[in-house]
């Protein structure tokens, strides 16, 4: 195995670690925070702090980030994120109520800044290290991030059962520092070509308003919100209705994680073979149906609902993977067809769009759906609202299907310019 391959694989692990920072607390933090006096909305706000910071930081980074700064951003981001998540682990000793909420929000916000810094630089840096993987790097990063999101809850629950609240966060932070140190030792520092012209947020906004990019962004945003929705509503519901402890809740989440990981690997192969758009379309259609199935399982009391919840979470994991993993290539495809021909510039724009989508999805999922709506309407009605939102996301895909030449777009053939 070549040095560049090792560095790239470690880079994917580092990318996965950033997702672990927010997902590992899903089984126990909502319950712990509720015990310390936080409301459902405040819990959702803390869960979304990472996404809010990611959204804000990505907008500023696109204005100031230049190719020569990529390596500094790539290595500094995980360090900031790791230190912040370690500090988050000691917040159980802070005062209850509003003080706890504010300190938690600050720690996760700083962690999100570090994550956004790393997000925006990762695609260009790893493509520069492993140029032969350039076409598939976006889908690999999406798969790594998604795996981190779904591996976090069972791992967090397991480590929490061993050492309590602090140990999961400290372990995640130390492991992240260890991985980034190894990458820095082995990574060959190759200069990244400067862009032909300076870019800023106004330059990117011009392309974000293109119709097909808007449609893809909406669909991916609603699909990515499922991470936050599952993390914030499942844990309190299982604890309240089935008296499942924080130590055991993570293993219910394991169904979501296993199916996402397996489906992500399969969909990655299909994306490489040119079927990413078709995977995106089918899973965008099936995802709201799996949420509807979860709703019916929650209202039928005669059945073994725990087992049905596990099955539904598995189906949701498969469909979220298919609706999320092809996103990098779809956005990059449309961007290049709309006129950004420089590959580094297209990758930076794609990283910005995906980071913004994740940030918005992270706000919509845990704050609006998991915090506000769930706190007022309860579990079942929240699922119906999420079903409606995901159905709208699928409707956004239909205009692309009806468009002439869409099969070639779905095959992601970069050789032809299909968008006028």
How would you describe the overall organization of this protein?
- The protein contains 16 helices and no strands.
- It is mainly α and 420 residues long.
Taken as a percent bin, the fraction of beta residues is under 5%
> Which structural class is indicated by helix and strand composition?
mainly alpha
Total of helices:
16
**Shape from CA axes?**
globular
User: What is the chain-wise order of helices and strands?
Assistant: HHHHHHHHHHHHHHHH
Average pLDDT metric: 78
**Helix content range:** over 70%
Rounded Rg: 20 Å
Number of strands: 0
Terminus-to-terminus distance:
43 Å
Taking the sheet with the most strands, its summary is: none
| Unreliably modeled segments | 404-420
How would the blueprint of this fold be written?
Blueprint: H1 3-23, H2 29-35, H3 40-64, H4 70-89, H5 98-129, H6 137-163, H7 166-186, H8 201-208, H9 211-242, H10 246-272, H11 276-299, H12 305-324, H13 327-338, H14 343-377, H15 379-402, H16 406-410
Key structural traits:
420 residues; mainly alpha
Short description:
The protein is mainly α. It is built from 16 helices and no strands.
